[in-house]
Structures are given as C-alpha cells and as structure tokens.
Amino acid sequence: MKLKANDTLHVSSVKADNILPGEEFEVSDDFGRQMVERGLAVEVSGGKTAKAEAAKQEPAKVEAKAEIAPLNKMTAPAANKSKKKGK
Predict the structure, then answer these.
(1) Apex CA 14: angle with CA 48 and CA 12, to 5°?
(2) Which stretch of DSSP H or E encloses residue 2?
C-alpha cells in the first residue's frame, strides 16, 4: 500500500531515516491500514503497488536449462605421491 506521511515518522522497515511529512512510502496493506486509522498517513490514489500488479500479471515463462553432467573430480594421484610407508 502506498501512503503519504502526515507527520514525521520513523518506520525502520521502509528506510533508516525519518519519513518527512508529505513524503510517499510503501508498506504492507495491514500496516498501512493501521497507519491510516491512526491518522499518521493517507493512502495515495492508485494505492496498488507495483509488486501487487506484477503478481497479478501472468508469470514469465522460464526455459529449462540443459543439465550439465557432473564433473568427475576424482583423478589419479600425482606421480610423486606413493603409498609406500618408508622414512
């Protein structure tokens, strides 16, 4: 929900700094309704968020990637490595 602040607010989930009067910001619908009921903010016309509109649109089709065969990481030991227990 898109809101416009009526007073200076601090909502850490929106931004670290204060939200100044008249500044527009976006919060969840539930939290936005609470702020409007308390008189802290007013809903901006066209209050649908871009995220909500994008969710309603048909999701983009994702093409499946061809699977890459796993690489065999086991290799023969180097020539200087021996299994002898000497020295």
Answers:
(1) 150
(2) strand 2-5
Question: DSSP labels for 22-58?
Answer: T-EEE--HHHHHHHHHHTSEEEPSS---HHHHHHHSP
At 63-79, the pLDDT tens digits run 767 777 767 666 666 67
| pLDDT, tens only, 23-55 | 999 999 999 999 899 999 999 976 455 555 555
Q: Is 84 helix (H, G, I), strand (E, B) or coil?
A: coil
Question: Residue 32 has which token pair?
Answer: 């936005």
Cβ partners under 8 Å of residue 39, min gap 6: 6
Asked if 41 and 9 count as a contact pair (C-beta separation under 8 A), the reply is yes
Sheet bearing 2-5, strands edge to edge: 24-26, 2-5, 41-43
* All residues at 6 or more sequence positions from 8 whose CB lies less than 8 Å from its CB, including other chains: 18, 19, 20, 21
